[in-house]
């Protein structure tokens, strides 16, 4: 080995690319399968816990608080309430969504728990807790077993929901509120 | 707890964005050797090894225990790996402690680590999930709405998080191991830093660090090898709860309140603010200081931000209950180790070993970690006095 090669051999290797690819075959199970089938038909569904009467979306087949099986299916509304939200500014490599965008914790009417979705078609600075929003679905021919069937949620011209009622509106929304 | 146990050695690495000079095994070994030296022991004196790290795609298989057994001198000894997301550093310390408290082992080495430069825990935790839209929001995207709800219900002024961000970096400037060294940081600098996940700004968020932390925990009859006094474990507790359930209190999680009540009861503490001398609390986003001040009973609900604004948690303002004298997670965040750093720094304080960030006369301190969707909690109280 020459002097040059020796010097090179003493250089530490401090990094090399070693990409890992992961493919995962997800078994949805019975309750989520029903949820996914309804989603493919353009419907949001949840399941009610027979113990605490709370309605879960997405349903996973049991209530995480009570630990008992849920099987009563409930069709939920396209209307929802903003429980909280963040405006995402952080640039993320390969992100198809262009910042700033709003990720909101939304509770659909008829459910008692939030999920996250995009809030769009709005003035970011005017988004607030308790705001009423509705789902904007893709064209029916594009529906798949995915929450992405809903493109985003957009603001609705309805009175705000007071904080103590967020997560408690019936499926009829404000109209069903006694 | 059946038998007494104490921390007799702590060891850490310098925390940095990238430790290209060592492999993962080398990084852990550095912390382990430092802890053994501090304890006045060698690998041959250790009876069992307990390790922990946060989830990522390490080796593609997430089985660091297989790869690291020899580097940690675990040949022929029991080795166990603990895994509770971001709280893992704390729960690993508690599992190691219970190995000794049960009377099964006399001296246990425990090590936690993260080499974020070689993978990326945050984005590994943000993979697409079935049933959910993939919005690429990361850890800050998860916690920002919870912080927003805290701000709403407490009515706290907008700059509480900014104040915490400055305070912890000034503490970190006293700690030569801290990743971020910002002795000249100002409120204005934090306020003008880029908004990442409104309301979380760049300088209100933790960095991504490489680093490892280790401790040696010994039984009552094995504490004398170290030249420094032991940090007696006065209480230890863990709690968990599901990420999501209807009506879950996300701002002030019940698992955190229950865990604190348990650990205080073990240590005989009624008023943590008055009875503890300092605390190392897991605050990865600045607003979690006021939120945890309330969750852990240092302040009434809705009042935690007042302690922060009054300077009660600041060493530089002469506060009565310094939080994160080491600079905390906001100054260094090798995720898997971050919880154990809190536990080890609490031990350093009561051993009088904390150097320029020593809280004068500290005799009773708390270490705290949380993880997942603020659903796993681990806490301990360590003291200079033998219980």
UniProtKB/TrEMBL annotation, chain A:
Pfam families to which the protein is assigned, alphabetical: OB_ChsH2_C (PF01796), zf-ChsH2 (PF12172)
SUPFAM superfamilies in the cross-refs: Nucleic acid-binding proteins (SSF50249)
Residue intervals of the ChsH2 C-terminal OB-fold domain: 73-138
Superkingdom, taxonomy of origin: Bacteria
InterPro entries associated with the record: ChsH2_C, ChsH2_Znr, NA-bd_OB-fold, Thioester_dehydratase-like
Domain named ChsH2 rubredoxin-like zinc ribbon: residues: 37-67
PANTHER family given in the database record: BLR3430 PROTEIN
The protein's name in its UniProt record: Zn-ribbon domain-containing OB-fold protein
Organism, as annotated: Parahaliea maris
Automatic annotation (TrEMBL), chain B:
PANTHER family, per database record: ACETYL-COA C-ACETYLTRANSFERASE, NON-SPECIFIC LIPID-TRANSFER PROTEIN-LIKE 2
InterPro entries hit by this protein: Thiolase, Thiolase-like, Thiolase_C_2
Residue stretches making up the Thiolase C-terminal domain: 247-381
Name this polypeptide is given: Thiolase domain-containing protein
Organism annotation: Parahaliea maris
GO molecular function, one term: acetyl-CoA C-acyltransferase activity
Domain of life: Bacteria
A Pfam family recorded for this sequence: Thiolase_C_1
């Amino acid at each position: 080995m020459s002097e040059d090669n020796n010097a090179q051999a003493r250089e530490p290797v401090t990094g090399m690319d070693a990409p890992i690819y992961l493919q995962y075959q997800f078994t949805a199970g019975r309750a989520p399968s029903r949820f996914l089938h309804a989603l493919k038909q353009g419907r949001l569904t949840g399941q009610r816990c027979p113990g605490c009467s709370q309605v879960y979306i997405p349903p996973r087949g049991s209530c995480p608080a009570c630990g008992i099986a849920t099987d009563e299916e409930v069709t939920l509304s396209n209307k929802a309430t903003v429980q909280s939200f963040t405006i995402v500014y952080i640039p993320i490599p390969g992100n198809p969504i262009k910042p700033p965008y709003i990720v909101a914790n939304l509770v659909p009417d008829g459910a008692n728990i939030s999920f996250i979705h995009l809030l769009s078609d709005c003035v970011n600075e005017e988004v607030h807790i308790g705001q009423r929003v509705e789902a904007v679905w893709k064209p029916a021919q594009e529906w798949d077993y995915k929450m992405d069937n809903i493109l985003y949620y957009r603001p609705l011209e309805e009175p705000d929901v007071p904080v103590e009622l967020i997560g408690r509106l019936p499926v009829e929304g404000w109209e069903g509120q006694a | 707890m059946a038998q007494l146990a104490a921390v007799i050695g702590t060891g850490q690495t310098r925390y940095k964005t990238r430790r290209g000079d060592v492999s993962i095994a080398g990084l852990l070994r550095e912390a382990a050797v430092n802890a053994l030296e501090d304890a006045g022991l060698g690998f041959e004196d250790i009876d069992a090894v307990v390790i922990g790290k946060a989830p990522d795609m390490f080796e593609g298989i997430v089985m660091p225990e297989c790869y690291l057994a020899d580097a940690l001198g675990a040949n022929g000894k029991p080795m166990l790996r603990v895994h509770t997301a971001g709280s893992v550093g704390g729960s690993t310390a508690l599992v190691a402690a219970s190995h000794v408290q049960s009377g099964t082992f006399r001296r246990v080495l425990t090590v936690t680590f993260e080499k974020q430069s070689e993978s990326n825990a945050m984005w590994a935790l943000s993979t697409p999930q079935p049933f959910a839209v993939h919005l690429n929001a990361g850890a800050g995207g998860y916690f920002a709405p919870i912080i927003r709800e805290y701000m709403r219900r407490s009515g706290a002024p907008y700059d509480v998080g900014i104040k915490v961000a400055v305070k912890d970096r000034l503490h970190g400037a006293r700690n030569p191991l801290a990743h971020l060294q910002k002795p000249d940081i100002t409120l204005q600098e934090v306020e003008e830093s880029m908004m990442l996940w409104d309301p979380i700004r760049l300088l209100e968020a933790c960095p991504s660090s490489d680093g490892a932390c280790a401790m040696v925990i010994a039984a009552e009859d094995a504490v004398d090898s170290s030249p420094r006094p032991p940090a007696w474990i006065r209480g230890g507790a863990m709690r968990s709860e599901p990420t999501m359930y209807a009506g879950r209190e996300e701002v002030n999680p019940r698992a955190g309140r229950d865990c604190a009540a348990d650990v205080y009861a073990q240590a005989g503490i009624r008023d943590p603010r008055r009875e503890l001398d300092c605390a190392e609390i897991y605050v990865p986003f600045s607003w979690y200081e006021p939120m945890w001040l309330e969750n852990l009973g240092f302040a009434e609900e809705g009042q935690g931000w007042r302690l922060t604004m009054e300077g009660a948690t600041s060493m530089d303002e002469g506060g009565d209950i310094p939080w994160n004298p080491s600079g905390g997670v906001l100054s260094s965040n090798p995720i898997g180790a971050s919880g154990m750093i809190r536990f080890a720094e609490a031990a350093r304080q009561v051993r009088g070993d904390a150097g320029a960030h020593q809280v004068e006369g500290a005799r009773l301190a708390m270490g705290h970690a949380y993880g997942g969707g603020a659903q796993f909690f681990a806490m301990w109280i360590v003291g200079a006095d033998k219980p």
